[in-house]
Specification:
4-stranded antiparallel β-sheet; elongated; 6 strands; 38% helix; single chain; two-stranded antiparallel sheet; alpha+beta; disordered N terminus
């Protein structure tokens, strides 16, 4: 009986790609986890006039098992992460509304982690599994980036309070949080 095991790991971070991400401080998204300004440990960017920046993204790993007798198996894990040392804020212009806006960027990453889990759940292990996973991941990241951009545009980076509140309700419903 031959068992072949393939494990692949790929990490991508919205706004930041780090070669030593495995040792970098991260916060895993959890229901009802609320970020606070102490989580934003990065240095402010002199080239960016934003009040705050959230570095978040999706990490995944998967394993395929090929076994003639027991059948093939595909397992995976997808998580949304926040990167404190790449996230920053300017205390002089940041408010509770700004923090709520940044929280939603992290929450949106979780929405797309769920979408990726859903798409991966439909994969049947084969010699093309690696390619399929990469294509799904690429598509999810494009969708995630577009959704993050739409969120910033519609809320004017949290300055449009009415739209910000609408997005908070929308994201909460998508995550089905109380």
């Amino acid at each position: 009986m031959l068992i072949f095991k393939k494990t692949f790991f790929l990490l991508s971070v919205l706004l930041v790609i780090s070669s030593n991400a495995q040792t970098e401080e991260t916060i895993v998204w959890k229901p009802n986890l609320v970020l606070n300004w102490a989580n934003f440990k990065g240095k402010t960017s002199k080239n960016n006039r934003a009040a705050a920046v959230t570095a978040s993204g999706i990490t995944y790993k998967y394993t395929t098992y090929f076994n003639r007798e027991k059948g093939n198996k595909f397992t995976y894990e997808v998580i949304a992460l926040f990167y404190p040392n790449k996230s920053w804020y300017r205390p002089s212009i940041s408010t509770n509304v700004t923090l709520a806006h940044e929280q939603l960027h992290f929450d949106i990453a979780e929405i797309y982690a769920r979408k990726m889990r859903n798409r991966l759940s439909k994969i049947k292990p084969s010699k093309n599994t690696r390619k399929e996973v990469k294509e799904i991941y690429s598509a999810i990241n494009k969708e995630l980036n577009a959704y993050q951009d739409l969120y910033d545009a519609e809320t004017n980076y949290s300055r449009n309070l009415e739209k910000q509140l609408l997005w908070q309700t929308k994201v909460k419903k998508q995550l089905k949080l109380k």
